[in-house]
Amino acid sequence: MEYTPAREIPCNFGQHNVPEALKELNYWSALDIFDVADPLQQGFLGKVTFFNLLSCVTRGDITRLHSDRLFDELDFDQSGRIDKADFLGWTFGTHSLYFSALRRRLAHLQEHAVMRLCHSISAPGNASLDKHQFRELMSKAEKTMTREVVDLLFGFIAGKGKLDIGKLFAWIHPERRGSCTRVVRPAHGPSDPLSPVSPTSHSNMNAMNASPLRSLLFETPANEPVILEFTIGPKFHTSLAGIKKILYDQFGYSHVAVRTVTDPSIGNTCDRLIVKLGRGILLWDRPSMVRFRDDPFSDDGKAKEWIFAVLAENMPIDFKPQRKTRRHSAHPIVSA
Question: DSSP assignment of 236-271, as one string?
Answer without folding.
Answer: GHHHHHHHHHHHHHHH-TTTEEEEEEE-TTS-SSEE
